[in-house]
Amino acid sequence: MENLLAALTYVLQPYHIGVVFFGTLIGILVGAMPGLSSIMGLSIMMPLTLSLDGNAGMLMLLGVFCGAIYGGSITAILIKTPGTANSAATVLDGYPMATKLHQPGRAISISTMASTFGGLFSAVMLLWTAPLLSKFALKFGAAEYFALAMFGLSMVTSISSKNVIKGLIGPEGWESQVSRYVPHNVFAMLKEKYREVFPRS
After folding, report:
1. What is the CA 146 to chain-centroid distance, rounded?
2. β strands within 63-185, DSSP E
3. How many other C-beta atoms can be found within 10 angstroms of the C-beta atom of residue 73?
4. How deeply is 76 buried, as exposed, middle or buried, from its count of CB atoms within 10 A (0-12, 13-18, 19+)?
5. What angle do CA 187, 188, 192 make, to 5 degrees?
6. Would you tell me how many other CB atoms lie within 10 Å of the CB of residue 106?
7. pLDDT in tens, 123-143
8. Which among 2, 21, 102, 127 counts the fewest CB atoms within 10 Å?
9. What angle do CA 192, 152, 149 make, to 5 degrees?
10. C-alpha–C-alpha distance, residues 54 and 147, integer Å
11. Is 45 within 8 Å of 26 (Cβ atoms)?
12. pTM to 2 decimals?
């Protein structure tokens, strides 16, 4: 409890509040630009934090990250283009509310409230559960890591029960990533060759 009070006293100083505010503003601008992710925002702002002391730099980076996650919802709502991958689901509800119901301000305000309260709730839960999770994670050995990997594979195959091979390999996912470096006719040849294995859904 003493450590928590000391941390709150440190964070609530005007200088540190200004650092968080500046980082959040930059993060929102980065997140609202489609193509720039929260990680890119952190990479861009990293050199600037070197001129600050360690804790203030961490506060700025936290502000950039949280702001970028929220900022992606602005373009997701207004132009149906998520600024970050985290805002992809916002397109499903936010864009129709902005266009069909003609309530873009309400959609952005709902996104702002959800992002704020979600971030605060997750921070409190992390503060409460981090000591328990760290003690639990330190007990992980080879058997536990293997069981966790098998659990992940079983979840993938259960979700893609229609075609297990497609679920394990994920051709749609790796095609979109690799297509930037491989000619398109290679994928056409692969699709023709493995048409029976990966039928179109």
Report:
1. 26
2. none
3. 29
4. buried
5. 115
6. 14
7. 889 888 988 888 888 888 888
8. 2
9. 110
10. 38
11. yes
12. 0.68
